[in-house]
Design goal:
Chain B: Belongs to the monovalent cation:proton antiporter 1 (CPA1) transporter (TC 2.A.36) family. The structure holds two protein chains of two kinds. Chain A is mainly α. Helix content of chain A is 40%, strand content 3%. A two-stranded antiparallel ribbon of chain A has the order 1-2. Among the domains of chain B are: 48-98, no CATH class; 108-456, Na+/H+ antiporter like fold (Up-down Bundle), CATH 1.20.1530; 470-514, no CATH class. In chain B, 71% of the residues lie in helices and 0% in strands. Chain B is built from 24 helices and no strands. Classes of the chains: A mainly alpha, B mainly alpha. At the A-B interface, helix 1, helix 2, helix 5 and helix 7 of A face helix 19, helix 20, helix 21, helix 23 and helix 24 of B.
Amino acid sequence: CGQAQVGVPRVPQGSAPVTSLLSLAVTSEQIEHLHRRFKQLSQDQLTIRKENFDSIPDLEFNPIRGKIVHAFFDKRNLRQESDGLAEEINFEDFLTIMSYFRPIEMNMDEEQLDRFRKEKLKFLFHMYDSDHDGKITLQEYRNVTWAPRCPIPPESPAWSSPCALQVVEELLSGNPHLEKESARSIADGAMMEAASICVGQMGPDQVYEGITFEDFLKMWQGIDIETKMHVRFLNVDTIAHCY
Amino acid sequence: AALAEARATSEGQLPGAAAMGTGTPPSPSGAAFEETRLHVFTLDYPHVQIPFEITLWILLASLAKIGFHLYHKLPSIVPESCLLILVGLLLGGIIFGAEEKSPPVMNSDVFFLYLLPPIVLDAGYFMPTRLFFENFGTIFWYAVVGTLWNAIGIGISLYGICQISAFGLTDITLLQNLLFGSLISAVDPVAVLAVFENIHVNEQLYILVFGESLLNDAITVVLYNLFKSFCQMRTIKVIDIFAGIANFFIVGIGGVLIGILLGFVAAFTTRFTHKIRVIEPLFVFLYSYLSYITAEMFHLSGIMAITACAMTMNKYVEENVSQKSYTTIKYFMKMLSSVSETLIFIFMGVSTVGKNHEWNWAFVSFTLLFCLIWRALGVFVLTQIINVFRTIPLTFKDQFIIAYGGLRGAICFSLVFLLPPAVFPRKKLFITAVIVVIFFTVFIQGITIRPLVEFLDVKRSNKKQPAVSEEIYNRFFDHVKTGIEDVCGHWGHNFWRDKFKKFDNKYLRRLLIRENQPKSSIVSLYKKLEIKHAIEMAESGMISKVPSSVSLSDYHEGKIKPLSPTEMENMREILTKNLYQIRHRTMSYNRHSLAADASEKQAKEILIRRRHSLRESLRKTNSLSRERPVLAFCGVFW
């Protein structure tokens, strides 16, 4: 059961061709485990939809749950040419998303590391950039710091109503008493720091449109994302089971 | 001894003074009655001898430090520890030459009870807890297994050398060698701090080496006591070895428990100190010192106790005490640890000079050789094993720095002086060997580690001020990782961290913090930065509408009557709102969506000043004068 070679997994029945999995460099045991998890989430179907994520109990408490689930269905993350949201994803797509969180390997050279880093940062960038226009605007940034758990979209005028405010929970402090004002000013402050890092000297007439991906890369230069953005699981060899 | 002597002399004076009344004063010539007149001017040195000498020593140490920094390039080439040892050697030579006897050796009690705790407290208080716990497994592995490996390896190989009769060392038994191995294998936190302070390697490496030096105290204490008792016992049974192992767990865990318990008590105490702000810093120091000496009383690991106490206290005390008290605590801690470190190195230099030595080429050189070899081997082998369990494997560069950074210092120095000479007839030989090893590691390794770090191009730390956006990203990150872990169905680090945070928020914070408003670190960092900017702008006269008491509320708390929480909240609101409005005008981020009123000229002025100050604060670091890299992260992590 479960071959030990890297990148040569046993193909579970009925899934899409796994040739693209060869580039992901996860071992066969990990694929087995993830496949088991996939089956559990999808209730033995071939694809999962957004509703399937509701069955994960611990995810309920996560303030950015919506963004995480959204990221799984974002076509830009699934390396597809088109844009927008997929309706459902199969196991191969699931693995593709998981591969963004694999840790670095010791034998990677500079160029591979750089590409690795860019991939991970692109994933994060897509999570911020909700309208898919390639720029993080102030409004989107504000949404990150004030992530609602209610389905009211941030652009709607319903935001000014008090009942909307009661439902939401602030991302960062988990404190329902913290006002939206403070969260907005925090987002503004952070945005201004971004502007000063990326654009430097700004004349009073200049307008800073939004954070593009290049600016995003610049801001994260100091932080070594390739070592931070990984999930421990993907390095542990689980016991392979035979089907 | 000095104290007894001083007392004796002053006692001796009293009868003489009393005798003035009765008319028979003691006089050396034994002559007949001689009245002493009233003395206009007296010199009574023995009365103040002890405090006087202590003050002179500390003054000398501090003056030496000033001297080093006069030539600004010197500290970057040669670490301060080396210079201080040289000064000590000089002083020791002078005293030896002047009095023809050995200068006072650093009393081990003074070292362990007074000089060591401030340094460990300082390091533990400002430790980046998040990074520490992320690497805890590796640190523990190196500390326990590494030290054991070193101790036993060095002990056995030295015993092998001793068997060769040509060296004249055959009277040193296996147990004595093992004891020697155990006391010389411990990496010393004081020396590590002193050297790593200046080279600014990345935090990961720093925390590995430094964490190891703290945690290995437990195993050092156990091994030292174990082998010392074995040397004095006539037969050794298997049960004794098991007792030794059990002792290790008790020492380590007991020390940590004492530290955590007293840390909580300290946090609880500071909950009630809002009426007497002035003595708040005292509680921090008293409780941590208490944890140290309580642990020492039970022969548990004092270092681990004080570290655990400092790390526990840190979070809660910071929120309970006033801003001024917090600053006082930080500065006083730095001052104490700086003085301690200086004194330790000077005393090491002074104690080296004298007649405590016995030189034996073979023993000394082989000790040095084995220390280096076993350290390098140990780090290499252990890393291969631990890399299997780490997500980010340690590279060869990392391993080299970890091995090279294993400096020995004052702890093994003091331990060797504590050996009972009756059981160890070759004690002087041990002392000489230890001194040679310490000097080698501190001088040679200390001086060459900086060029090596640059040559190997080891990743350095970036000491920039934590930005609000960075804090947001970090937090966002954590949530993403936790979410993915949940989807995978795997409980990783983040799961336990989340659980602890929930427990913390629900029970601990309620109990230990006075006004428990759940405060996110992002919000508090943001508010700290904003208040700083507000002060700057208020001082430059820009904000005229905001009442001055608002912006100065944090700084003049003592003068105004204490504000209720609602008032504080209102003030913070006003502050935030006003700043937000100003930034509305000055941001020019997206003019179209902001309400632009008020004078344009004022807006431009504010914009220029604001951007200038923001850029300034992005460049400046927040570290205090001791330039520890850990300081920049104390606010960001956790």
